Amino acid sequence: MRRLDEILAYNRHFLEQKAYEQFQTTKFPDKGLVVLSCMDTRLVELLPKAMNLRNGDFKLIKNAGAIVSHPFGSIMRSILVAIYELKAEEVCVVGHHDCGMSAIDPDRLVAKMKERGVSAQTIRVLEHAGVDLRRWLRGFAQVEEAVKNSVAMIRNHPLLPRDVAVHGLIIDPHTGKLELVENGYDHR
Ligand code: ZN
Hints:
By secondary structure, this protein is α/β, with parallel strands linked by helices. Helices cover 37% and strands 16% of the residues. A 5-stranded mixed beta sheet has the order 2-1-3-4-5, sandwiched between helices. Zinc ion (ZN) binds at residues 38, 40, 65, 96, 99-101.
């Protein structure tokens, strides 16, 4: 069976068993928390378990690297919606060791795009249109610095309420150990 068919077949079973009942909650985070983390597969279950967070406890936003790269991009918008519309009160940026975004080489990525059929012409057109692909695709050298940058971007955002604490942490993707990089309570 192909992946999507497997998912849909399983889903019918899930509903029949009423397996959803144990997950029922509201859209408001019981622990008043927004977590921005990385899409790394090792963190899917490990991160909530290591932070004692369950369904209903928090809003979880993920991307590659837990990076806020633009003050008016979708990550920042999600954080603001969580705070103003969904009663979140604190933000945790949780980066991790051994992150794929720390090893990203934009030139190599562009080369892979070309191998997969994106034409050099397309790349040139984008660049002429002002898209700085290499800047857009680049990751970070040090996770600690990346977390601090994201925390600063959120904390200094002109639309963020001043009383919202923004914390920065690094998680070990093997053990779940958390390292505190920025304590948001010190900055309010
Ligand atoms: Zn990562």
